[in-house]
Design brief:
By secondary structure, this protein is of the alpha+beta class. Helices cover 36% and strands 11% of the residues. Strand 9 and strand 10 form a beta hairpin.
Amino acid sequence: MLNLIRVCSYKRFLLVNINSSSHLQMLKLFSRRPHDLHSHKRPPILFIFRNLTKSHLEDDDPPFSPIVKTVKHKNQKKKNPKEDESNNKPHNKFPIESNLPFDFRYSYSETNPSVEPIGYRETPKFSPFGPGRLDRKWTGTVAPLQQAVDMAKVEEQKNAILGNPLSEEEVSELVERYRHNDCARQINLGKGGVTHNTIDDIHNHWKKAEAVRIKCLGVPTLDMDNVCFHLEDKTGGKIIYRKINILLIYRGRNYDPINRPVIPLMLWKPYPPIYPKLIKNVADGLTFEETKEMRNRGLNSLPLMKLSRNGVYVNVVEKVREAFEVEEVVKLDCAHVGMSDCKRIAVKLRDLVPCVPILYKDEQIILWSGKKAMETDFSNL
């Protein structure tokens, strides 16, 4: 009984709404499907109900408009995306020839050419430049020059590109333009230092800018002189500004970005070779007991300084040298720096201070002043 009352009330509501609507709206509803008016299968009330419940936005609102299906012809062939990519890729039929007057290495500032590796983690046939893309042979650590180079002629070409020296006003103008932190022409140097692909990045910036801002962080900051030397030597530019770890390298007055040198890129980072162990069981010049005693003294002493990860280590060498004037063993706290960076730091300090690394433990580096320093101290007495 209740359901019958509800149905009757709902029909009455529909009829009231129909009478209250305008004549144009009714014509629009009935004109949508004119064939239904002559159909005896559907009752009039059901037809009116369906037209009222149907959205009026179907013909007006684009999101709710019916989707037009495109008819595909049978003769039309499907395009293979792999074929399109292969057609767009440049085909290098011949290896890239580069006239750069130096041997190609992954890193120029963080490798020592005089130290020969004792093994390789991959065979030298896997060149990081890619198979058949370079006219130089990869030996595992370097792609050497194929013929001798006249260094005097190379220096003349560099001086010709640099042109006349910049005046103080020109230098101050360039420094003021590129030395700020929000400079768009900036390159960050990490623990890899001056890498081979960094040279290409500098030349790409030189297309639209006279100078490039270089921010050095991590292990390379221990020896900023070495970084500056390799930047000038490998790029042919000139360092016009240097403050702590910030450098500005100028391209030269006569630099031609169109006829710049060809720099073949390394497609991946090569595996580092295996070098001899840096820390020996018994330090040179000491016995086993003396080496053990030096290590215990270093572990129980207070750290000279604490190094952060990817920090600025510009003053570390000077502080270690000053500490060796008083102490024989020095400890550096390298917590959260990482084992690989600890080894790089120890190698740098061994060559720059100089000193002897005798222990890595719990991210602590123990350095010994060495036998020669002890002999000089005794001679002064």
